[in-house]
Write a sequence for this structure.
C-alpha cells in the first residue's frame, strides 16, 4: 500500500506498467518492487527449486527473490531484480519459474517432495543410465529448476565501452562516499563517484535521520548538487562497479538507458567502463542479513532495513500491520520509522533478553519467531516469548534484522581476506586490499552516520596524501553516532525448514546434510549445497550458512572462514562485455584499394582475416561459382588477368646490414641478391618448421621490400622486429610495415607484358632481356605516377606485380581494365588464384600450416648449409629428416570428374580406413579447367618415390572414398617456360 | 600531373565530413607522410638533421610538432613520422631522403594512413574519445602524440589545441574507423 505522505517519488505524475499480465500505476522515482508493493502485490515470483511463493526481501541489488523477466521480444531479460528496475511508463515484466500461473504453480509439488530434493539430490539420483543424461534428465531438471528464460531474438540495443581515469574512484554514494567525494573534489582532485542506484545518497534516502539538522536525503541531494558543479568530478549514478582488477583498474557498468522504454537513437543501453584509478575508496555500505526460522520465506517477510527503506523512500508498506524480528538496535529503528509514517507495528520481537524498550509498540524481549502462516503471502507469525509461551501475531509483513554485513565483494577481488569482527558479528575487510584501495563507512564496519562521514573524509584525505596532496580536514556535519548493539543470533533452533539462501532454496537442513556427509569446508559447503551460488552470490545468505556450519563443527565463524568473492559483484549483461563489437562491428573490416571498383563489377567477396577480398567476378549468365572461376582461369592463361594482391604483407627493410639481416631471417641465401632482383624466400620458425614464404626485392644496396602471405603479415613483421631488437641489435636495420601504403596488382598471362607496356612510361625496357623473370624496379606509370614493378608469378604465367601508392589503386585498376580491354583482360579473384597456384604446385596456407618442414614441401634444399639462419639447425633434426617423411605431391583422381575432398586421408589401395594405415592427406583441391580434371595437392609419406602409384583417398567426414594417382605437384608448365617467356 | 586520380580512404573523390551534435568529423586525405628512422649509430645526427629540416627540435617521446609545412610526431625511439600537405610535398619521402642524407632510413607512408580530424568543444571530444581509446584525453596537452588502439585498429592520435584531435588509422580500415568515430560521437550527443 502507498502511504499517505513522504517518499522521494513524484506523486504528481502517474506511470503505467504491467506485471504478470495485470496493469498497475506507479510514480516516477519508484522501482518495480516499490510500485508492486504500493499496488499490494507481495507475490512476485516462485523459488528456484521448490517453487515456493516468494516476494521481495530487500530493497537493493542484494535481492534474491523478486526476479522477473523484464521487457518483451528481443529486449526480454531474465533474472532482473525488481528492486533495481527503475519504473518507466509502459514497463512490462513477467514472473519467473511459475507454470501455469504465479498464483498456481504446478511445480510447487516439488515443495511436497522436499525430503527427496535435498542437497546433492542431482548428483545422487541422476547417475544412470548415462544415455539419459542429455536427453532426459537435463531437460527435466532445466524445466523444473530454471531461473527465467532468455529470448531467442537478437538484442536490438547497442552497447558501448569506454575508459575513464581519475585520482580517486569513490565506489558508493552513501554518506561515506559523498563525504569522500566532497573532500577530494573540494581539494581539486579528479574524482569519479559511482553508485548502482539511480538516486545517490545510499541509506540516507532510506532513513529518517538527520545530517546537519536536515533530512539525510536532503543533505545527500545538496552534496550531489555541489559535486555536480565541480568540473573535475564525474558523478555516475546507475553505475555498478562490479570488479576490482589489477593496477587500480575497476570494471563498471553504467545503465545508460535502462530506465527508459527504449534507448534514444544512437545511445547505448549500457556502457562498460574500465576505470583507471590512482586510488579507490570503497564506500559500498553494508547488507542486512536475515534470521532463519521456519517458513521464513513467505511474501511479506523482508529485511527490516528494506521495510524501512520502502516506507521512507517510496512511501510504501507491504501491509498496514507489521512486526519486526531483530537481534540488534537497527530493528528498533525500522519499527520507529514505520510507526512515524502511520504503519501499525504489532510488536518488536527482539531475541535479546535485555532488549531496550521502544515507544509506540511492544518489545518482546528474548522472544523468537518460530513459524509463519499464509499461502501466498504472510498472514501471521508465531512467536515464542521469553517465558516460553507462544503468541500469534496477525501481520502482513515481518521485518527481519539479523545484523549487518559490510559489503565485502570488491575488497576481496584481489584475494583480500576478510577478518571477523566480534563487535559487529560480521566480517570486515582485511589488511590485504588491492593496491591503492581503501574502505570507508559501513563497508568497513563503521555503522553510524557520523562514522561514515568521518571515515569517508579521512579516506579521501589519506588517498590524496598518498598522491602528494595535503588536503585540509573538512568540517563534518553533525550526524547520529549510535553504537552498534547486537547479540548474534543466526537461526531459531529446532526448526525444520528454515531458509538461508532464498534464491537457491538452501535451508539449514541442507547445511546439516553437508556437514553429515563431510562437506564441512566452506568452499565444499558452497558447492555441495549451492549456498551462495545463485545470481545474488549469496549476499544475504552466506554468513547464515557459515554460522550454521560453525555451530555444527564446534568452531567459531572466524575459524570457519568465508568463501571467496569474485567479480562481477552483480550480474553483467554479455552485451555490455561485448560493447560495440557485435554483429558487423564484431571486428573491423579491411578493404582493398580496388574494393569499390570490384563491388561495381558485382564481385563476390570472401573474408581473408580482416580483409574482404574479391573471391570471383560472376558475369551475366553464370549461375554457379565454378563457371566464373573456370572462365577467369582460362582467360588469364589464354591472354591476361588482373588480381588485387594488396593484402600480401609488405615490410620495408633498410639499413647497412639489411641484406645480412634477411640472410639470417630467411633459410635461403639473401646476402648476394643483386639490386633490381627478387628472390623467393622461406622463413622457418626457431623449431625448424616453415613459418611463412614470400619474396624479397632488393631496391638498393641498403633497401629491400619483403612480402609475406596475407595471413602472416603481422606475425612476420613481429617476428622480424623481435629479431632486430632482441637477437641482433648490433645490426643496422630499420623495419616498417608498408602493407597499407601500396596498392598492388598482379597482371598475369601471356599478354600481361603487352598491357603493362601501355601503363609504364616510355624509356623503360620491359623486354624479357631488359626486365627478366624475378626482376624489380621503381618505375613511372600513367604519365608520371611513381610505382614499383616486380616480375614475379604465383600463377605460373608470365606475370608482374605493379604497385602504386594506395590512394591511386582504384584509378589504376580502372586504367588497367581500360588499356587491357582489347586483350579481354579479366579480373580474377582468390578462387582463380587458388586454382592457378594448385595447377602450378605452389604452396599456400593449406601446406604452410605450421606443421610442415621445407623438406615436406619439397624445398629442403632451400635451407642453406652455407650460413646460419633462424630454424636452420633444428630443421635438421633427425625426426624431421626421416626417410618416410611427408612429401608434397600432386593428386589426380582416376576418374577426372571425381572431386577430391580437401582433408581426405590417403591410404594404400585396399587398406582399412584406420589411422595406422594413414599415408598422408589432401591439403588443397580444385577443378582445373586447363586439365579438364579435378586435381589436388597433398602430403604423402615418401611421396617423391611413389609417383604413379594409385592410392585411396577417403574422407569419413564427407563420405567420399575414391582412387587417386600420385603425380608431380607441378601439373601445369612444369618446366616454367611460360613464366620466363 | 599523371593520369591517376586519387580516391580517399573512405572511397570517394571528395573527403567526407559529418557534424554530429557539436562534434565534427572530417576526413583529411591531403597529407603526405614518411617515416624517418635513424641508422644505427647515427641517432644524434638524424635528430639534428630532422630538426634542421623541420625548423624545430625533433619531437620527443609522445610529442608532436606541427610546422607550417613539415610537421612530425614521435613513433618509436629514434623514429618519427613526418607529415606535410600533400600538395606541398607529393613525394615527401624523396624530399626527406635528400634532406637527411645517409643518417636515416626514410619510408613512404603517404597512402598507408587515413586521417580524420575531429573538432568540437574539448570536454565533448574528450568524452567521445573516452569511448574509443584508453587515453586520458583531458590530461593530454596540446602537441601530444600517441599510438593507441581504436576499434581494434592501431592508430596514431595527435592532440591539437582545444578540442582538436587528429587520428591516423590504417587506410584499409578507414571505413571501420570512421564508423567507430561516428558511433562514439553519436553516443555523447
Amino acid at each position: 500500500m502507498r502511504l499517505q505522505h513522504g517518499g522521494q517519488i513524484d506523486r504528481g505524475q502517474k506511470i503505467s506498467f504491467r506485471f504478470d499480465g495485470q496493469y498497475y500505476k506507479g510514480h516516477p522515482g519508484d522501482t518495480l518492487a516499490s510500485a508492486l508493493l504500493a499496488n499490494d502485490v507481495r507475490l512476485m515470483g516462485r523459488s528456484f527449486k521448490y517453487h515456493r511463493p516468494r516476494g521481495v526481501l530487500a530493497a537493493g541489488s542484494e535481492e534474491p527473490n523478486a526476479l522477473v523477466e523484464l521487457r518483451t521480444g528481443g529486449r526480454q531479460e531474465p533474472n532482473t531484480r525488481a528492486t533495481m528496475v527503475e519504473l518507466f511508463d509502459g514497463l512490462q515484466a513477467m514472473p519467473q519459474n511459475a507454470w501455469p500461473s504465479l498464483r498456481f504453480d504446478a511445480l510447487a509439488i516439488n515443495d511436497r517432495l522436499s525430503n527427496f530434493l535435498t542437497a546433492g539430490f542431482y548428483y545422487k539420483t541422476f547417475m544412470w543410465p548415462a544415455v539419459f543424461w542429455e536427453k532426459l534428465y537435463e531437460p527435466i531438471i532445466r524445466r523444473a529448476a530454471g531461473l527465467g528464460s532468455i529470448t531467442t531474438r537478437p538484442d536490438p540495443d547497442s552497447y558501448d565501452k569506454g575508459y575513464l581515469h581519475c585520482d580517486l574512484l569513490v565506489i558508493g554514494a552513501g554518506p561515506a562516499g559523498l563525504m569522500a567525494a566532497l573532500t577530494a573534489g573540494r581539494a581539486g582532485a579528479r574524482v569519479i563517484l559511482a553508485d548502482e542506484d539511480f538516486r545517490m545518497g545510499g541509506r540516507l534516502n532510506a532513513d529518517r535521520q538527520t545530517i546537519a539538522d536536515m533530512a539525510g536525503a536532503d543533505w545527500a541531494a545538496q552534496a550531489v548538487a555541489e559535486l555536480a558543479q565541480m568540473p573535475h568530478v564525474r558523478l555516475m549514478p546507475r553505475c555498478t562497479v562490479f570488479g576490482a582488477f589489477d593496477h587500480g583498474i575497476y570494471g563498471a557498468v553504467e545503465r545508460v538507458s535502462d530506465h527508459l522504454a527504449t534507448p534514444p537513437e544512437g545511445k547505448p543501453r549500457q556502457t562498460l567502463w574500465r576505470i583507471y584509478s590512482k586510488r579507490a575508496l570503497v564506500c559500498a555500505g553494508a547488507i542486512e542479513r536475515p534470521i532463519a526460522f521456519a517458513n521464513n520465506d513467505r511474501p511479506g517477510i523482508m529485511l527490516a532495513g528494506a521495510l524501512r527503506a520502502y516506507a521512507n523512500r517510496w512511501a510504501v508498506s507491504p501491509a498496514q500491520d507489521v512486526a519486526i524480528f531483530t537481534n540488534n538496535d537497527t530493528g528498533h529503528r525500522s519499527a520507529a520509522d514505520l510507526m512515524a509514517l502511520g504503519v501499525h507495528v504489532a510488536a518488536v520481537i527482539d531475541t535479546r533478553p535485555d532488549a531496550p524498550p521502544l515507544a509506540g509498540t511492544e518489545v518482546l524481549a528474548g522472544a523468537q519467531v518460530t513459524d509463519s502462516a499464509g499461502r501466498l503471502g504472510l498472514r501471521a507469525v508465531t512467536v515464542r516469548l521469553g517465558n516460553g509461551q507462544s503468541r500469534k501475531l496477525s501481520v502482513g509483513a515481518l521485518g527481519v534484522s539479523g545484523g549487518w554485513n559490510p559489503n565485502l565483494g570488491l575488497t576481496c577481488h584481489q584475494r583480500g581476506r576478510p577478518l571477523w569482527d566480534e563487535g559487529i558479528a560480521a566480517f570486515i575487510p582485511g589488511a590485504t586490499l588491492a593496491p591503492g584501495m581503501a574502505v570507508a563507512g559501513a563497508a568497513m564496519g563503521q555503522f553510524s552516520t557520523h562514522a561514515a562521514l568521518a571515515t569517508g573524509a579521512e579516506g579521501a584525505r589519506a588517498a590524496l596524501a598518498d598522491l602528494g596532496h595535503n588536503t585540509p580536514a573538512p568540517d563534518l556535519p553533525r550526524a547520529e553516532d549510535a553504537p552498534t548493539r547486537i547479540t548474534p543470533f543466526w537461526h531459531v533452533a529446532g526448526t525444520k525448514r528454515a531458509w538461508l539462501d532464498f534464491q537457491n532454496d538452501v535451508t539449514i537442513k541442507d547445511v546439516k546434510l553437508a556437514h553429515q556427509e563431510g562437506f564441512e569446508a566452506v568452499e565444499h559447503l558452497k558447492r555441495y549445497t549451492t549456498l551462495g551460488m545463485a545470481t545474488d552470490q549469496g549476499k544475504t545468505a552466506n554468513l547464515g550458512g557459515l554460522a550454521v556450519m560453525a555451530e555444527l563443527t564446534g568452531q567459531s565463524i572466524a575459524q570457519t572462514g568465508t568463501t571467496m568473492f569474485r567479480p562481477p559483484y552483480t550480474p553483467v549483461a554479455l552485451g555490455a562485455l561485448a560493447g560495440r563489437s557485435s554483429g558487423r562491428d564484431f571486428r573491423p573490416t579491411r578493404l582493398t584499394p580496388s574494393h569499390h571498383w570490384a563491388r561495381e563489377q558485382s564481385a563476390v567477396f570472401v573474408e581473408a582475416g580482416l580483409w574482404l577480398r574479391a573471391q570471383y567476378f560472376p558475369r551475366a549468365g553464370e549461375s554457379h561459382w565454378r563457371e566464373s572461376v573456370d572462365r577467369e582461369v582460362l582467360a588469364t592463361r589464354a591472354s591476361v588477368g588482373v588480381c588485387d594482391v594488396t593484402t600480401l604483407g609488405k615490410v620495408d627493410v633498410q639499413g647497412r646490414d639489411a641484406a645480412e639481416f634477411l640472410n639470417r631471417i630467411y633459410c635461403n641465401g639473401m646476402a648476394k641478391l643483386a639490386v633490381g632482383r627478387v628472390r623467393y624466400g622461406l622463413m622457418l620458425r626457431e623449431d625448424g618448421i616453415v613459418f611463412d614464404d614470400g619474396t624479397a626485392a632488393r631496391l638498393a644496396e641498403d633497401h629491400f621490400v619483403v612480402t609475406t602471405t596475407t595471413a602472416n603479415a603481422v606475425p612476420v613483421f613481429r617476428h622480424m622486429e623481435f629479431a632486430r631488437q632482441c637477437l641482433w641489435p648490433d645490426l643496422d636495420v630499420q623495419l616498417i610495415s608498408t602493407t597499407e601504403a601500396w596498392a598492388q596488382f598482379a597482371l598475369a598471362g601471356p599478354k600481361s607484358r603487352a598491357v603493362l607496356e601501355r601503363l609504364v612510361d616510355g624509356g623503360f625496357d620491359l623486354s624479357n632481356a631488359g626486365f627478366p623473370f624475378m626482376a624489380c624496379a621503381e618505375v613511372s606509370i600513367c604519365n608520371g605516377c611513381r610505382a614499383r614493378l616486380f616480375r614475379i608469378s604465383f600463377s605460373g604465367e608470365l606475370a608482374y606485380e605493379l604497385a602504386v601508392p594506395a590512394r591511386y589503386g582504384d584509378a589504376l585498376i580502372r586504367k588497367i581494365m581500360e588499356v587491357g580491354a582489347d586483350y579481354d583482360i579479366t579480373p580474377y579473384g582468390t578462387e582463380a588464384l587458388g586454382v592457378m597456384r594448385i595447377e602450378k604446385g605452389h604452396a599456400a596456407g593449406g601446406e604452410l600450416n605450421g606443421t610442415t618442414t621445407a623438406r615436406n614441401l619439397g624445398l629442403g634444399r632451400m635451407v642453406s648449409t652455407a650460413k646460419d639462419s633462424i630454424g636452420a639447425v633444428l630443421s635438421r633434426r633427425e625426426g624431421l629428416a626421416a626417410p618416410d617423411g611427408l612429401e608434397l605431391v600432386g593428386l589426380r583422381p582416376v576418374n577426372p570428374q571425381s572431386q577430391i575432398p580437401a582433408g581426405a586421408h590417403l591410404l594404400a589401395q585396399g587398406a582399412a580406413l584406420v589411422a595406422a594405415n594413414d599415408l598422408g592427406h589432401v591439403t588443397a583441391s580444385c577443378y582445373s579447367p586447363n586439365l579438364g580434371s579435378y586435381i589436388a595437392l597433398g602430403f604423402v609419406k615418401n611421396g617423391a618415390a611413389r609417383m604413379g602409384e594409385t592410392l585411396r583417398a577417403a574422407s569419413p567426414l564427407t563420405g567420399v572414398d575414391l582412387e587417386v594417382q600420385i603425380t608431380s605437384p607441378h601439373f601445369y608448365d612444369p618446366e616454367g617456360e611460360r613464366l620466363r617467356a | 600531373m599523371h593520369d591517376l586520380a586519387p580516391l580517399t580512404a573512405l572511397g570517394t573523390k571528395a573527403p567526407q565530413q559529418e557534424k554530429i551534435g557539436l562534434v565534427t568529423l572530417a576526413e583529411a586525405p591531403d597529407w603526405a607522410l614518411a617515416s624517418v628512422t635513424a641508422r644505427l649509430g647515427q641517432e644524434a645526427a638524424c635528430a639534428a638533421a630532422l630538426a634542421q629540416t623541420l625548423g624545430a627540435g625533433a619531437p620527443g617521446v609522445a610529442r608532436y610538432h606541427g610546422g607550417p609545412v613539415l610537421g612530425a610526431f614521435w613513433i618509436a625511439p629514434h623514429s618519427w613520422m613526418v607529415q606535410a600537405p600533400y600538395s606541398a610535398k607529393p613525394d615527401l619521402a624523396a624530399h626527406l631522403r635528400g634532406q637527411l642524407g645517409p643518417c636515416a632510413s626514410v619510408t613512404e607512408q603517404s597512402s598507408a594512413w587515413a586521417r580524420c580530424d575531429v573538432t568540437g568543444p574539448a570536454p565533448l571530444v574528450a568524452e567521445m574519445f573516452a569511448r574509443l581509446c584508453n587515453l586520458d584525453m583531458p590530461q593530454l596537452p596540446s602537441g601530444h602524440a600517441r599510438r593507441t588502439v581504436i576499434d581494434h585498429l592501431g592508430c596514431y592520435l595527435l592532440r591539437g589545441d582545444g578540442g582538436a584531435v587528429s587520428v591516423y588509422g590504417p587506410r584499409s580500415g578507414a571505413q571501420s574507423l570512421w564508423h567507430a568515430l561516428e558511433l562514439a560521437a553519436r553516443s555523447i550527443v
Observations:
- Chain B touches chain A through 52 residues (CB under 8 Å).
- The mean pLDDT of chain B is 96.
- The CA atoms of residues 63 and 144 of chain B lie 5 Å apart.
